[in-house]
Amino acid sequence: MLCPRDLPEHFRGEQRLGLPVSFTEYYPKNTPDVPLYAYLANSYQRALAGNSPEIPVDDMVSYEALCGKADRGKLSSREAERLHALQAEVDGRDYWMLYKGGRSIPVVEEHTLDEFDLRLLRLSDRAASAAIKRSRK
């Protein structure tokens, strides 16, 4: 199974046509597989700078209280914004702890299609073609 970054990585080093500037990569080399919101979180950035990614105790207390309110459907819009920001911090810390700033490893390994898979793929293609033909009538 492909990771979301596998396709852009395939084009690394190739000049993207139609752009007036040099554009040969979507991600800088060795960029970790971390969502942008978590990568930009203060906790993740602290860890990149060599400091602890831990979140202050007061923020964690607020986070847990807001999660409880969210579970009960009692968040105001201001509290929802605060929870969103704190969730980014928690995720930034957790991604750092999980990958230590490195690339993640795909969970699902690539495999070769066997006869059953190929037969299922042909049946699926045939069913999709029939549905398209019916929709055009």
Sheet with most strands: none
Work out the strand percent: under 5%
Distance between the termini: 36 Å
Rg over CA atoms: 22 Å
Q: Helix proportion of residues, in percent?
A: 55-70%
Show unreliable segments.
none
Count of helix runs? 6
* Computed structural class: mainly alpha
Number of domains: 1
- The tally of beta strands, per DSSP, is 0
Query: SSE order in H/E notation?
Result: HHHHHH
> What is the mean predicted local confidence, pLDDT?
83
Instruction: Give the overall shape.
Output: extended
Molecular structure report:
With 137 residues, this protein is an all-alpha fold. Helix content is 55%, strand content 0%. The chain has one domain. Helix 3 runs parallel beside helix 5. The two termini are 36 Å apart. The mean pLDDT is 83.
Task: Offer a concise description of the structure.
Helix 3 (42-48) runs parallel beside helix 5 (77-99). It is built from six helices and no strands.
